[in-house]
Amino acid sequence: MGRVTSLVFAKEGARVAIIDIQEDAGRETVGMIRDAGGEAWFFQADVARSEDVDRAFDAIKTEVGPYDVLFNHAGTIIVKPLHESTEDDYDRLMDINVRSAFLVCRRWSTPNEWSGLIVNASSVSGLLGRRFLVLGVGSPANCAV
Ligand SMILES: NC(=O)c1ccc[n+]([C@@H]2O[C@H](COP(=O)([O-])OP(=O)(O)OC[C@H]3O[C@@H](n4cnc5c(N)ncnc54)[C@H](O)[C@@H]3O)[C@@H](O)[C@H]2O)c1
Q1: Mean pLDDT across the stretch 45-66?
Q2: For residue 123, what pLDDT is reported?
Q3: Residue 139 Cα: closest atom of ligand 1
Q4: Most CB atoms within 10 A, among 105, 121, 126, 137?
Q5: Residue 18, number of CB atoms within 10 A of its CB
Q6: Percent of the chain residues topping a pLDDT of 90
Q7: Burial 36-49 (b: 16+ CB within 10 A, else e)
Q8: CB neighbourhood size of 135 (10 A)
Q9: What fold, for 2-136?
Q10: CA angle, corner 100, sides to 7 and 108, nearest 5?
Q11: Ligand 1 — pocket residues by CB below 6 A?
Q12: Are 56 and 19 in contact (CB under 8 A)?
């Protein structure tokens, strides 16, 4: 979904800065956008780590320029029954889905750096319980800029 959203942003004329932990996939998306005549850049980062988030935003400011739409989409799911879920599963999911949104939105809201809007992707699993997606429920956010 992150790739498709990036392609749609670019098709609509946005200059797209992609942040993802997967370098190959991120660079492939940048290639797809550029091949279609759009503008895109890739910045590798683990968005659950504040130093990575700051490094990526510093680079975007320098290499791309001011940003005005944030689409927060990095996320994952863990599919298993509740009674088999571990505290490590919980911590991993919350770091990737929730802590990342906090860190990215916090950096985005740095005075004099931001304007525009933030879209945080979520899931219907936050509204309707689904079997084996217990740890997905309540994880609100997910990252491309
Ligand atoms: N696919 C769906 O139908 C769907 C529906 C509703 C909600 N969602 C939610 O959207 C989120 C993403 O789902 P998706 O299907 O697009 O998955 P996806 O795997 O296609 O995209 C998620 C991206 O996040 C990146 N990512 C993961 N951890 C990261 C980290 N620590 N730092 C930086 N990047 C990281 C991954 O590398 C991947 O490129 C999930 O939280 C999921 O629950 C998905």
Answers
A1: 95
A2: 80
A3: 41
A4: 121
A5: 27
A6: 65
A7: eebebbbbbbbbbe
A8: 22
A9: Rossmann fold (3.40.50)
A10: 70
A11: 1-2, 20-22, 25, 46-48, 73-77, 96-97, 121, 123, 136, 142-143
A12: yes
Please name the amino acid found at residue 76: T
Ligand 1 atom nearest residue 52's Cα: 32
CA distance 141 to 51: 19
Domain borders along the chain are 2-136
- Euclidean distance between CA atoms 18 and 21, whole angstroms: 10
pLDDT for the residue numbered 6: 97
- How much distance in Å is there from the Cα of 122 to the middle of ligand 1? 10
Instruction: Report the b/e string of 78-115 with b at 16+ CB within 10 A.
Output: beeeeeeeeeeeeeebebbbbbbbebbbebbeeeeebe
Q: Indicate which atom in ligand 1 lies nearest the CA of residue 22.
A: 37
Average pLDDT over residues 82-104: 93
Element (H, E) at 92: helix 87-94
Is 9 buried (19+), middle (13-18) or exposed (0-12) by CB count in 10 A?
buried
Whether 105 contacts 58, CB under 8 Å: no
Q: Which two tokens stand for residue 72?
A: 């927060």
Nearest CA to ligand 1 atom 5: 123
